[in-house]
Design brief:
10 helices; 364 residues; 6-stranded parallel β-sheet; alpha/beta; 7-stranded mixed β-sheet; 18 strands
């Protein structure tokens, strides 16, 4: 195929605000160990919104104006650089580009399978150009093959949201048949966790979210649902805790996976866990506070654990896609690139259910 000299890309034109622009940029040639991917679909993640609006004050530096966003890209390899002969990737392969555009593979975290905290990692849409563009470079060793039978628009959100929550569920210490609470269950991350955790891993899922999302969360496979608007405010919220214990017949949940970036959700979680329960930290609040109610006597008395979970590694990414091919049934919303700022506004106002995916193939 003919590769154009320039192509269209979506950039953050006013970092700190919900604002994007569509620009022409030069189509790069792949260097040694790189492949050029023609992007057909790219998921829109809440992390993109957080980066664009500078919501994460703890980052080393804010996003720069003109940054190409996006980190859930699926497309076809159209050109290989040198030294790709033994990568297993060929022209014409369908591959995915993740939040971690690359990890070195040689540092202590990488060797331990903790790619997400590789100190040499490149982050799509933050430290390198992302996937909101027609053509993107990626290291051949770190792209994820997309299995046959999994539609590209379904695969795209799994490359960040899916593998992130899959990795978190694996860290939860929960066993098949036990209750697992997912906070933010109707969101882009949480609804994938409901499907992968419930249908794929055999957990009994309690979804926490706004009442308007109950039907959607149950369709994704949640066995129970709690409307968080009934229990507003920071702190323990005894009513919500009592409801979890009622659902679990007095035992409590084996794990709580925080797909919400709410300090209130974190504050409630430890109180409804059963003995040996695990609080898995995934969503990162912009307003940094310690986890409330993490009293030593509670942690010791119930042998609770608090664990952090970054994005998954290469193996977990492939496992996520394989599992999703069997259990991910909720539809994604396909949007044109021109509507991306509207999608971000809806996301900021908590009006989205599930995932929105940009179609880059034909609508720029």
């Amino acid at each position: 195929m003919t590769i154009p000299k320039t192509h269209k890309a979506v950039v953050y034109d006013k970092p700190g605000e919900v604002s994007t622009g569509i620009v022409d940029i030069i189509t790069p040639a792949p260097g040694p160990g790189q492949v050029l991917v023609k992007i057909t679909h790219s998921g829109i993640c809440h992390s993109d919104l957080s980066l664009m609006t500078n919501a994460w004050s703890w980052l080393p530096e804010p996003v720069k104006s003109g940054q190409v966003g996006g980190h859930e890209g699926v497309g076809v390899v159209v050109q290989l650089g040198s030294s790709c002969e033994n990568s297993g990737i060929n022209a014409g392969d369908r591959v995915g580009i993740k939040w971690l555009a690359s990890a070195c593979g040689n540092c202590a975290p990488c060797l331990a399978g903790a790619d997400g905290i590789c100190p040499n990692a490149e982050i799509s849409g933050y430290t390198c150009p992302g996937t909101f563009q027609e053509y993107a470079l990626a290291p051949a060793h770190y792209v994820t093959p997309i299995p046959d039978g999994l539609a590209s628009e379904v695969a795209a959100p799994l490359l960040c949201g899916g593998v992130t929550v899959y990795s978190a569920l694996r860290k939860s210490r929960a066993r098949a048949g036990e209750w697992v609470v997912i906070a933010g269950a109707g969101g882009g991350l949480g609804h994938l966790g409901v499907q992968l955790g419930g249908r794929g891993m055999g957990f009994r899922i309690i979804g926490l979210d706004l009442g308007a999302k109950e039907s959607f969360v149950r369709e994704c496979g949640a066995e129970a649902f709690i409307d968080i608007t009934k229990y507003p405010g920071e702190g323990e919220s005894k009513g919500l805790v009592d409801e979890v214990f009622h659902i679990t017949r007095g035992f409590g949940a084996a794990a709580a996976v925080m797909c919400s970036a709410s300090n209130a959700a974190y504050a409630q979680a430890l109180s409804y866990l059963k003995f040996n329960g695990t609080l898995v930290c995934v969503g990162v609040p912009g307003d940094t506070k310690p986890i409330a109610n993490a009293y030593p006597h509670l942690m010791v008395g119930k042998q609770l654990a608090i664990v952090g979970s970054n994005v998954g590694n290469r193996q977990e990414a492939m496992e996520t896609l394989s599992m999703a091919r069997r259990v991910a049934t909720s539809p994604v919303q396909i949007e044109k690139v021109q509507n991306i700022s509207h999608v971000f506004t809806e996301m900021k106002n908590c009006k989205l259910q599930g995932r929105v995916v940009l179609e880059l193939e034909s609508c720029i």
